[in-house]
Amino acid sequence: MPFYPFKATIRAIIVGILLLADSGYQGLLALHANSRIPYKKSKNHPLTAEQKLFNRELSRERMVIENINAKIKTFKMMSERYRNRRKRHLLRMNLIGAILNKERLIGAV
User: Fold this and answer.
1) pTM recorded for the entire structure
2) Measured distance CA(80)–CA(75) in Å, rounded
3) Which of 38, 61, 84, 105 is deepest in the core (most CB within 10 A)?
4) What is the mean pLDDT of the chain?
5) Is a pLDDT exceeding 80 seen at residue 60?
6) Which alpha helices (DSSP H) does 14-85 contain, by range?
7) Which of 53, 31, 10 is nearest to 39 (CA)?
8) Residue 21 Rama label (left phi>0; alpha psi -120 to 50; beta)
9) In this structure, what DSSP letter does residue 26 have?
10) d(CA 80, CA 64)
11) Residue 39: is it exposed, middle or buried by C-beta count within 10 angstroms (0-12/13-18/19+)?
12) Residue 10 and residue 54: Cα distance in Å, rounded?
């Protein structure tokens, strides 16, 4: 999702929610204080060891979310533009989430 449409909907996000974002959302901290984005190095200012560790930990947390997004996109209706009724979108997302949770529980046994 590009930053500009996200910026228009940021007010709908509850203040207490922690947002984990990639480096494409550098301006997010000014809009939502409870967000975490990785540090970027510049030409003359390399990252410190603490910043590298923070980036690595954030990437580990985001990796779980990105893998779930990839599994959701294995359903064709979610990998392309959604062309059905908007009222049904949340229902279908809940059904897909239930399927993926069931698969995860079966695989964990």
Assistant:
1) 0.68
2) 9
3) 38
4) 83
5) yes
6) 28-31, 49-72, 76-79
7) 53
8) beta
9) T
10) 22
11) middle
12) 24
pLDDT recorded at residue 3: 55
Find the mean pLDDT for residues 88-109: 85
Token reading at 32: 């939502």
- CA distances, 13 to each of 3, 43, 55 (Å): 15, 34, 24
Q: What is the predicted pLDDT for the residue at 4?
A: 64
Burial profile 11-22: b = 16 or more Cβ within 10 angstroms, e = fewer: eeeeeeeebbbe
Please state, in angstroms and rounded to a whole number, the distance separating the CA atoms of residues 87 and 92: 10
- Among the listed residues 47, 52, 51, 59, the one whose alpha carbon sits nearest the alpha carbon of residue 20: 59
Length of the chain: 109
- Rounded average pLDDT over 81-109: 84
Say if residues 28 and 45 touch (Cβ distance below 8 Å): no
Choice between 109 and 60, residue whose per-residue pLDDT is larger:
60
Using the 8-state DSSP alphabet, how is residue 54 labeled? H
